[in-house]
Design brief:
By secondary structure, this protein is mainly alpha-helical. The protein contains eight helices and no strands. α1 runs antiparallel to α8, α2 crosses α7 and α3 packs across α8. Helices cover about 75% and strands about 0% of the residues. It has one domain.
């Protein structure tokens, strides 16, 4: 991998992590309305991962976002809000706990968000998907459907 590719990957990782942080910021605006211990756990784990191993958030999410790109592009709220749908679309593997935690974080507060806030959440998720696509292209792991 050349220097430009490494620089591009670092930018993509930072961009991805900013999108995750933006989701937390949007949802934290409703913090007083809903309390959930899982939300705090996901926030703490995400912050630790982002600081200690920046590529890890993207790497833990890449397959899940890619496999569910249609649901993301369609802004399918069932994908986020119904537990049985999450179980159906998210494979049971070592990355499942993190992705389920992030989705649960959104789910807990999603119904309390305004239209503008939900649009912002979907924008962040779509931006995360965009980062995944760019990452896969640079890593030569992109196989179009």
């Amino acid at each position: 991998m050349n220097g430009k590719q490494e620089k591009d990957i670092n930018y993509i990782i930072q961009y991805f992590n900013r999108q995750v942080s933006n989701i937390f910021k949007i949802i934290d605006s409703k913090l007083d309305e809903i309390q959930d211990d899982n939300v705090d756990w996901v926030r703490r784990v995400t912050k630790i991962i982002r600081n200690e191993n920046p590529p890890m958030l993207l790497e833990k999410s890449i397959d899940k976002l890619w496999d569910n790109k249609e649901k993301i592009l369609e802004r399918n709220t069932e994908f986020l809000l119904q537990t049985e749908v999450v179980g159906k679309y998210i494979k049971d593997d070592e990355r499942k706990e993190f992705i389920e935690g992030l989705i649960n974080f959104v789910r807990v507060k999603y119904k309390n968000l305004s239209k503008t806030e939900t649009d912002d959440i979907w924008l962040c998720i779509n931006n995360m998907l965009q980062a995944v696509i760019k990452y896969k292209i640079i890593k030569c792991d992109f196989i179009p459907d």
